[in-house]
């Protein structure tokens, strides 16, 4: 009996001695894992917060861009309306006078008679040189200065003229700022030689590509609309159904601004 009790106590003590270190090891592991789990949770929370802030920033940026675009569009419309109103007021007050249709038609006929019109197969533009210049050639995208008179071919009505304004036009040639026909008239094409400074060219643009308006065609949009309405040659979309005639004089070019 005593021997059995002694064996039991010995076995129990042995079990306790070997179990205690394992318990301490498990506690140490738990204490190590707990901060790691906490750190992982904190990192996930921080990442979510940063993502949410990024999304919010992007949304705010999009709203700002939309507001800026709306403001620019509104300002552009207001500016166009103001310019159109000013042009109409000048016309109504008689500050801007246009030649009569008969006088303009006679002038156009005289200019056309002084040279033989040729038709470009590449562009469809009709052209002839009234005066061949002897100056420098134009450079694409360079600021170029010229005088011109623009009119309807059917009636000879002048709808814009730098001669009347007494201010030559300065524009970036070849950048489609005004009308396709002017870019081609100055720079030339496959079968049209470029103009030279001092030259004068007579061009006729038919409805289509050569009449595509540019970004700065407001110079003549009011006068052109009035001339088309009077002649009954305006399409439903507001584009001309008549040929447009341009008498162009190339003046000294300006240095390119890059």
TrEMBL record:
Entry's Gene Ontology molecular function annotations: peptidyl-prolyl cis-trans isomerase activity
Q: What is its EC number?
A: 5.2.1.8
Q: Catalyzes what?
A: [protein]-peptidylproline (omega=180) = [protein]-peptidylproline (omega=0)
Top-rank taxon: Eukaryota
Entry annotated with the keyword Isomerase: yes
**Gene3D superfamilies under this entry?**
3.10.50.40
Q: Does the keyword Isomerase apply?
A: yes
Q: Which EC class is the enzyme in?
A: isomerase
Q: Which organism is it from?
A: Tetradesmus obliquus
What is the official name of this protein in its record?
peptidylprolyl isomerase
**Keywords (A to Z) from UniProt:** Isomerase, Rotamase
Q: Which InterPro entries match?
A: PNSL4/FKBP13-like, PPIase_dom_sf, PPIase_FKBP_dom, TAT_signal
């Amino acid at each position: 009996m005593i021997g059995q009790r002694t064996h039991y106590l010995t076995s129990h003590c042995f079990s306790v001695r070997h179990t205690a270190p394992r318990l301490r090891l498990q506690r140490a592991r738990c204490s190590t894992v707990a901060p790691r789990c906490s750190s992982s949770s904190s990192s996930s929370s921080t990442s979510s917060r940063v993502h949410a802030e990024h999304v919010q920033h992007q949304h705010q940026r999009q709203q700002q861009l939309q507001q800026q675009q709306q403001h620019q569009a509104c300002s552009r419309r207001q500016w166009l309306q103001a310019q159109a109103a000013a042009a109409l007021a000048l016309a109504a007050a008689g500050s801007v006078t246009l030649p009569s249709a008969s006088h303009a038609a006679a002038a156009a006929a005289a200019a056309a008679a002084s040279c033989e019109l040729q038709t470009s197969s590449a562009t469809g533009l009709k052209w002839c040189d009234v005066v061949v210049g002897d100056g420098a050639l134009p450079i694409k995208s360079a600021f170029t200065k010229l005088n011109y008179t623009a009119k309807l071919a059917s009636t000879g009505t002048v709808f814009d003229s730098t001669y009347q304004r007494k201010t030559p036009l300065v524009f970036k040639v070849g950048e489609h700022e005004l009308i396709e026909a002017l870019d081609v008239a100055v720079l030339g094409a496959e079968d049209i030689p470029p103009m030279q400074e001092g030259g004068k060219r007579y061009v006729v643009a038919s409805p289509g590509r050569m009449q595509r308006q540019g970004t700065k065609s407001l110079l003549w949009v009011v006068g052109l609309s009035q001339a088309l309405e009077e002649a009954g040659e305006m399409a439903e979309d507001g584009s001309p159904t008549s040929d447009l005639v341009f008498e162009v004089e190339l003046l000294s070019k300006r240095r390119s601004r890059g």
